Amino acid sequence: MQNIPACKGQSMPGHTISCMTEKMDEIKDERCRQYLLRLEAIVFSDYRLVENMMNDCKEEIANHSCGRVQVSQEGTPHSQGDTIECLSTKVLDLRPACRKQILRLAELQADDFHLDRALFFACREDREKFCEKTRAGEGRCVEQMTRRQKLMVRDYQVSRGLVRACRSAISENQCRRGLGDQNHDVKLSHILLCLEDAEKKGKDIERACQEEMLTHRKMLMEDYQLSPDLLVDCSKDIGLFCHDGIETGGRTLHCLMKHAHSHNQQETISDLCKRRLQETIKQSDAGEDWRADPVLYEACYSMVESNCRAYRGGNARVLRCLMQHLDSPEMPTACEAALLEIQYFVARDWRMDPVLYAACSENAERLCGARRSWFNVNTSSPELGGKRRFESEGGKKSKVEQVLPCLFRYVYHPSPKLRLNSTCAEEVQRVMQERAAHVDLHPEIERVCMGELGKYCSSHTGPGEEIACLQDNMEMLERECKDAVGNYTEAEAKNTGLNAQLTMQCASVIPQVCGTVPQPDTDGALMECLIRHKNTELVRNTHKCRAVIEHFQLLALKDYTFSPKFKESCQVDVAKFCGRPKPKNKADVIECLSTQVRDAVLSDDRHKISKACRHQLRQQLMQRHESIKLDPKLQRHCSNEVAKYCKDVTRGRGAVLECLRQNKQNLLSECHSVVFLREEEEQQDPGTDVVLVSTCKQMIQQYCYDIPAEQYLSCLKKKKSELNFDPMCRQVVVRRMVEQTTDVRLNPDLYQACRRDMAKFCSELVEQMELSSTELNGKLTECLKEQLPTKKLSATCKVQVLTMARSSALDYNMDPILLTNCKDDMNVLCHDYLNNDGRGKMEECLKLHFDTGGLQSEECKIHIAHVIDTQRADIHVDPILNEACGVDDNKYCEGKEKGQHLACLLDVLERNPNGLKDDCSKKLRDRKEMFSAAYKISHLKSIEDFVNHVSASPERNYILLVFVTAIGIIFVGGLFCGRAQTLQVAQG
């Protein structure tokens, strides 16, 4: 006693013993300690023997009827211990002075459960059995343990185990700073949060203290009644949804968690209750160790044993493992539910993920204005009850909830100075990928889209379905929700790991077709790779994977920012050239940019669109041409034609567009115009021609591997006659060549070479072309061919026109006017050659019948006459003659200029007919007769020729109208002039 000055001056009865008991740790004499321990059992059984208890709690004893001897226990000793028990159960209702005495007493009793008489008598049977899951004594022990736990929550010192194990940690980390050593109202949550903060900062916490912390965290998760604020603010919700809280072992808390993220407003707990729940989960730090949550532990034990056994508890290791197996078939339903219920709250406070917090605390503070300290509790004065205001209470838009979305925005920031460090970026992406499938785990989306989820997505509850549903209905979402979903979709496009459906359905495909794409993917390269390979056999056979890829392609049409590389490469061009009218979606952006590119090609101007953007535009056009679903304009204008002519065509690989091209003559004007635009795009850049590129893939690799994509068709046209050329590819190349003959706009090489010649010789047709949104059916090409004999064409244009003339001579399908004007004659006179072999036999047949007068159609006669007249330009334009006279041409005319070989051979025929081979000699004589007959039609010499020519011309109505109008003007003018002259004579 001499060594404890505080106990010397005590004069009240029993106060000296109470004082010395309180200072037990300072007493060194073992005999004194043992004596005091024996006295404690007597002192703590009667409140009248406890220092200041009688004085400080007299009013409460009377008000709460805690001083009355129980009638049922009048004969039992130590009955005054009931007073202490009674007051401890009403600790929240006591005045500060009395509450201090009760908490102080509970601290002293914590040394030995014998000192708490009510606890001792109620729990002695259970203590003997020591069976955690068995209740004995009709629940008396549990009732008394709950009472003790409630006292611990109010004053951490009631837990002697925590005080002893963590004394040094509490002191070193100043967890009682500003509270004073004599304060008996330091809440357990304050100490736990302080120690957890120290642990997350890397401070060394003793193993025994860590174990005690885990025990107390588990205690908070087991019994919601140990959280007074939650008990008060959630009482109504517990009564409504959770069977009045009768479920134990943490089930009531999980019931509240379940109803915290319900999208049905009628089944959702109040915001205040949700905040209290968030506080409780943070205090227990349930996101750090799965063992702290008894419901999660019980539900997931088997899953952890089979899949996560290698991971120690703590630092969220096991929880991360469970999240990685969330979509595994082995995952028990109960485990998944409990895990998502915990993750719902972890997702709303980035600090509750210890690995994320450790990696990103500096970045969060620098870039997102987050507090550096994990422990953000403001403790007010004890006199005000020690109330705290958590950050989660800070209004509708909690700052804590915004930190992770903020960090995520900086993962892909264009400025390296503002980008997250690699460790933090990796953790942020890991967290976002783990949570990708569940909108509940994205508070920034759930908060603003709750109404839309209920309205549009109530039936979509599977992994990833809710977010996909919101994306599908993006046009109908409210502004805030639309922005949130748009931001997430843009991020999803960059990092396909955020696309839960894609990750799930394409897991087996990605390593095989896109294994070389660096991971993690941050620029959309993986999605681009999957799109490129979606028509491979492997992906086509994985139907669900292909469906997810195509779904994202459709989604990307809603906004060009959902295509990262396209946005990065083209955003400057879009801002410069596509501002008016402002594009509504990606399809509008593609239409605008492709129009700019097309106009530059047609006008032979320098490209305004940057090279990088044109490269990305090619990828987008290829996707658009591949599937009509990705071409809203074509789908809108051609839906009836597709249903009528292409209903049996397998969708994808450009098949529908190809079908429409082959049925152009049957299309309505609106559809025809759109199809013509698509043909223009593909002819100007064959790299966007899906059918050509896919069918001719091997031929391109073999013959055109070093050729730019814009020149693929030109290259393949030159090589199509090679012996080992793929027949299927040849068919496609020929079809494209046939298309080119229908309109010069579909033949960029011809258009650029002959642009000035067309303006000079075919100006009326050029004007007609500029007003037309479809083909001119070869009229401009024919006009250019007619200039060949006159030798007025420019050199570059002449080369292109000669090439086209030769091609049309070999394949009659490449002469659209012949197909129109000579259809009947071909069917009747040249039926055997309708099965085109590409060797010019059909045209030769028609020319022979022209020579003999066998053609019935005047239109056909005129056109064949023009063909024959055109072929006077050069022997190479006449493939049949060239084949027959090739040897003689080399023999007699080798040194002649181009265009002089036919004249040379005709001269040889006149001078030395026997010097030519018989076949060549015969063909030359036939040609002379044809030239003569054709000349009579092509160069009119009489009124009769003119009349016959006009009557046979397809433009006869127009010519007659012009002729009659001219005659009428002359006649009327003559009348006026005659009358004027007569009047003048009369006046004279």
Automatic annotation (TrEMBL):
GO CC, one annotated term: Golgi membrane
Membrane topology: Single-pass type I membrane protein
Start and stop residues of the Cys-rich GLG repeats: 93-150, 204-264, 268-330, 419-478, 540-601, 608-668, 724-792, 855-913
GO MF term (any one): fibroblast growth factor binding
Keyword list, A-Z: Coiled coil, Glycoprotein, Membrane, Repeat, Signal, Transmembrane, Transmembrane helix
Location within or outside the cell: Membrane
Bilayer-crossing regions: 958-978
Main location class: membrane
Ranges in coiled-coil conformation: 467-494
InterPro entries named in the record: ARM-type_fold (IPR016024), Cys-rich_GLG1_repeat (IPR001893), Cys-rich_GLG1_repeat_euk (IPR017873), GLG1 (IPR039728)
PANTHER family listed in its UniProt record: GOLGI APPARATUS PROTEIN 1, SELECTIN LIGAND RELATED
Name of this protein: Golgi apparatus protein 1
